[in-house]
Specification:
Number of helices: 12
Order of helices and strands: HEEEEEEEEEHEHHHHHHHHHH
Strand content: 15-25%
Number of strands: 10
Radius of gyration: 20 Å
Shape: globular
């Protein structure tokens, strides 16, 4: 099955970079070289590698996956991704399938209405299995018959998510879809922070919006993301500033104000601490280091 998966992804990702498909939820990625660590925000998705290997680091915790396993992000998480195995002869090949919490909830209601109140990380690695691989292959093959995509793709995606939920750590995914669970409230808090990251974050107000106490919010937020809400906001701000510096050519001070910093000097200190270089040196390094279009937030 893996040989067929390699063949199909190579067809749909004939060159290095990220490639969209006619199925909106499905994307492919190819890379011919190992990568430097790259800061990104993983969206709620299933990430499957057909060839090569990758490490995703969340707050110092490493999640390693390869063709024998898959990674799932249940919420938006700031990670550092690094392709650790790739070459021109054997390029890194992967796919990303976006996850809809609404579909997860529908599957839960129909197949397993029980859920565990225990809150866990919003990221996991599980061992792959033939049933999941078979469903992924069928989804990719639907791309060859565009007239079938509208009808068949949603059914196969539903099957794929069902297989993922049946996995060893399926409960860690279910928790984010169940209204009333702590994890569902944290998912909402993460959405609010991402939506308004440039605004001052008032923990008491955020806790009120997600119907939690401040202490409970902090406790469960850290269980899900490994960092506090304020740390999460800082990472999102700095990643957004990096994109502005690189794509829009803004000065560091302008980018800092755009993402919500009041002090350019504080912004420069925190930027340097996170990315290892001052804002301008970092942008110069990124532009000098690669001769292809910059992909500063690859997901898969």
């Amino acid at each position: 099955m893996h040989e067929e998966l390699i063949y199909l992804i190579q067809r749909h990702a004939p060159s290095d970079g990220t490639h969209a498909s006619a199925i909106p939820e499905l994307r492919f990625r190819r890379a011919s070289h190992v990568s430097e660590p790259k800061h990104t925000v993983n969206s709620p998705s299933l990430y499957m590698i057909a060839q090569g290997s990758k490490t995703a680091t969340l707050a110092g915790e490493n999640y390693i996956y390869d063709p024998t396993s898959y990674l799932v992000s249940s919420v938006h998480l700031p990670v550092i991704g690094k392709i650790t195995q790739a070459s021109p002869q054997l390029p890194y090949l992967s796919l990303q399938l976006s996850i809809s919490p609404d579909i997860i909830l529908e599957i839960i209601k129909e197949s397993d209405p029980q859920w565990n109140e225990k809150t866990g990380r919003g990221i996991l690695v599980n061992q792959s299995n033939p049933l999941l691989l078979d469903a992924l292959l069928r989804l990719i093959k639907v791309l060859d018959t565009p007239k079938d995509i509208g009808f068949l793709a949603p059914l196969i995606i539903r099957e794929i998510l069902y297989r993922v939920l049946q996995g060893e750590q399926g409960a860690l995914i279910r928790q984010f879809a169940v209204v009333g669970s702590y994890a569902h409230s944290i998912s909402k808090a993460i959405h609010l922070i991402n939506r308004d990251y440039a605004k001052p974050l008032v923990i008491e107000q955020l806790a009120k919006e997600v119907n939690m106490s401040s202490s409970s919010l902090h406790k469960h937020f850290k269980k899900v993301t490994a960092i506090s809400p304020l740390q999460y906001q800082k990472v999102i701000r700095l990643q957004a500033a990096r994109r502005l510096l690189l794509s829009d050519g803004l000065a560091a001070a302008d980018a800092s104000f755009r993402v919500g910093y009041e002090s350019p000097s504080q912004f420069s200190r925190e930027y340097s601490r996170m990315f290892g270089r001052s804002p301008m040196n970092d942008v110069k390094h990124l532009r000098d280091a690669i001769s292809v279009p910059v992909d500063i937030h690859p997901n898969n």
